[in-house]
Design a protein that fits this description.
The chain has ten helices and eight strands. It is an alpha/beta fold. Strand 1 (13-19), helix 1 (26-31) and strand 2 form a beta-alpha-beta unit. The longest helix has 16 residues, at 92-107.
Length: 275
């Protein structure tokens, strides 16, 4: 059968992704990616440490990043992304910037991290007060709050699960419940942290319910990487990806029954202004 008329596969542009060894949501990342872009993923070496600040430091060491980026070089990605929230906020803003520089030195490509992409997304949305949802322990969650505070972002409410393993198994129901609890106070947006926490399908639901932009770790990572390619992430009804989705109609107030109107009575001249 002659298939020459098909012309071969379309040219692809590549994003090289470095993820921690326990990352289990490759498919979720792909859901934000347009057809003309491919993701090339590699993982950091396994270490027998549960999710914690110690693990965040281990999977973000510059030598580890350099080896992972060099492993991606054969695929010739145009952009590099480090897909781990805790690994990129554990060293503060200076640490996140140093990670991007280390990746650039090894791959000579524009580089982003999840936590850097988070600040970029908040700036895009004009959000300075946010609600925060994480699957982490208290200490890791507090470290994220410190990173946000360093960037001038106020956390108005938070909810966390205290997990140290199997984060990718958390159902959407639990994510939504945490979001509702965290967003009770006034916030410009809600951030769902951890690239190992499923979020794609729950974002539109929460935005419609909470009436604020809802962003997640995987979403902002892909969004920021694709921005550097000059293209856009895809996703239905997500405020970060579509400006028209950032405006919610005012809730309709119930119509009160019309009361019969009594005929107007003129006030005596001396009582004008007292009605």
């Amino acid at each position: 059968m002659d298939v020459s008329f098909l012309g071969g596969p379309h040219p692809q542009r590549g994003v090289g992704v470095v993820a921690p060894f326990d990352f289990a949501l490759d498919r979720e990342l792909w859901r934000w990616v347009p057809d003309e872009v491919s993701l090339h993923l590699t993982r950091t070496p396994y270490v027998p440490v549960e999710v914690s600040l110690d693990l965040a430091r281990l999977v973000s060491e510059h030598e580890t990043l350099g080896e992972a980026v060099r492993a991606l070089s054969a695929a010739e990605p145009e952009v590099l992304a480090y897909a781990c929230t805790s690994g990129s906020f554990v060293g503060g803003i200076a640490g996140e910037r140093a990670m991007c520089e280390a990746m650039f030195r090894s791959g000579e490509r524009p580089s982003v991290t999840t936590s850097g992409a988070l600040l970029e997304a908040l700036a895009e949305l004009g959000a300075r007060r946010i609600a925060l949802v994480t699957p982490y322990t208290r200490s890791v969650t507090e470290s994220l709050e410190e990173y946000l505070a360093e960037a001038g972002i106020t956390v108005t409410g938070r909810a966390f699960l205290g997990l140290t393993r199997h984060i990718w198994k958390v159902p959407y129901r639990d994510v939504a419940d945490m979001a509702r609890g965290a967003a009770r106070l006034d916030a410009d947006a809600l951030f769902i942290s951890c690239t190992n926490l499923p979020t794609y399908d729950v974002i539109p639901q929460l935005e419609a319910e909470l009436r604020i932009p809802v962003i997640s770790a995987n979403q902002v990572t892909v969004w920021a990487a694709l921005r550097r390619l000059g293209t856009r992430a895809v996703g239905p009804y997500q405020a970060l990806l579509d400006e028209s989705a950032r405006h919610w109609p005012s809730p309709e107030l119930p119509q009160l029954p019309q009361m019969p109107q009594e005929p107007a009575h003129e006030l005596p001249e001396e009582q004008e202004g007292w009605a």
